[in-house]
Backbone:
């Protein structure tokens, strides 16, 4: 299968036009099936996906070890095509609690040393702090990653959920390949300031939450029961009246999808793909059937009439509820 590719900014690597986000295979969306997760990573590599995204704090190293296991079990050629993007910096307790971020240079190197071991690789392709550590100037955090680049342990410097000012300061310190940030039909916050800044600086976007964590995938039902450890059980967009309103938006999208003979998830992913060659959507598939559906989005062409119909169905700002609970909103786009 031939996979479309896109560049992660002007200094980053060329990657598959869709990346695989592995978070849900370990954490945050309830239980996942380990064998099916590994089979999904293998199927993605087989289909030509080259970008795998993780965080060292996704179930405290679990997700990195899972990816390491999948890579070891993959044929050498598939293993070698994989580019691994790792987020670090979130501090966890043994009970899974969250206690802030650490972007101090010594911490950055410590996080990286452990990630290399868990992944079983000799370098990380893109390395980024998950959230700005408000106590450490971004220049120091990025400077530490730049030293890891010089030493060969990291190939490219990324950013995650930072605002335009921080993007500019980071880019003035060292070359930045991409900013990872939420972007979807119902999360368009980057369009006003952040996207113009990344475009001016030649920095790519790896977009996460393109299905808004399943909300606009077409598979999320009004009566779905969520486990207490599922992020969505506490996410404003998935609560009560907000959920009803947001799923009405999905119903409007479904009509367009049906007319085009594609699925809702494919429309939502194709919409993000249509927003620019500098944007690489990360899809959070953790089963092979979901992956196959997501990859189908690469074949969906949205013309001007389709895009206008989508805009009418889901206008900018149409979602009810913020994309994170209030305490977590305080740490995004900083
Ligand atoms: N930088 C950051 O702050 C940040 C934050 C969050 C995530 N991320 C990264 O971005 C990646 C993607 O984020 P996400 O998982 O929230 O994104 P997503 O793709 O919006 O949501 C994934 C969810 O959508 C559901 N889904 C339904 N149909 C799907 C399909 N065809 N393909 C894929 N998923 C489908 C899945 O549910 P079921 O499995 O229940 O079917 C899954 O739980 C993560 O894995 C992580 O690597 C980064």
Residues:
């Amino acid at each position: 299968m031939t996979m479309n590719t896109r560049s992660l900014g002007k200094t980053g690597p060329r990657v598959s036009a869709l990346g695989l986000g592995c978070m849900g295979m370990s954490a945050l969306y309830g239980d996942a099936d380990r064998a099916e997760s590994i089979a999904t990573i293998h199927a993605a590599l087989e289909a030509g996906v080259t970008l795998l995204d993780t965080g060292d704090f996704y179930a405290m190293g679990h997700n990195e070890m899972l990816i390491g296991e999948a890579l070891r079990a993959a044929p050498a050629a598939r293993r070698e095509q994989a580019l691994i993007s790792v987020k670090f910096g979130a501090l966890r307790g043994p009970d899974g609690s969250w206690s802030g971020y650490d972007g101090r240079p010594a911490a950055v190197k410590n996080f990286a040393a452990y990630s290399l071991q868990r992944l079983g690789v000799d370098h990380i392709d893109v390395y980024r702090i998950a959230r700005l550590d408000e106590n450490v100037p971004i220049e120091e955090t990025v400077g530490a990653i730049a030293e890891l680049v010089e030493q060969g342990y990291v190939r490219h410097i990324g950013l995650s959920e930072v605002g335009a000012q921080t993007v500019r300061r980071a880019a003035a310190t060292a070359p930045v390949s991409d900013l990872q940030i939420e972007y979807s039909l119902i999360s368009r916050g980057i369009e006003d300031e952040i996207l113009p800044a990344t475009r001016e600086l030649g920095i790519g976007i790896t977009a996460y939450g393109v299905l808004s964590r399943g909300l606009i995938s077409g598979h999320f039902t009004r009566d779905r029961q969520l486990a207490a450890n599922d992020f969505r059980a506490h996410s404003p967009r998935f609560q009560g009246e907000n959920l009803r309103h947001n799923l009405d938006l999905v119903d409007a999208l479904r009509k367009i999808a049906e007319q085009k003979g594609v699925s809702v998830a494919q429309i939502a992913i194709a919409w993000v793909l249509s927003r620019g060659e500098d944007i690489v959507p990360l899809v959070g598939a953790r089963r092979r059937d979901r992956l196959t559906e997501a990859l189908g989005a690469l074949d969906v062409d949205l013309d001007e009439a389709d895009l206008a119909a989508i805009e009418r169905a889901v206008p900018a700002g149409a979602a009810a509820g913020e994309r994170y609970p209030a305490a977590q909103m305080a740490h995004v786009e900083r």
About this structure: The CA atoms of residues 255 and 264 lie 9 Å apart. The chain has one domain: 5-215+269-300. The domain at 5-215+269-300 is CATH 3.20.20.100 (TIM Barrel). The pocket of NAP is lined by residues 21-24, 29, 53, 87, 130, 160-161, 180, 208-214, 217, 219, 265, 282-286, 290, 293-294 (CB under 6 Å).
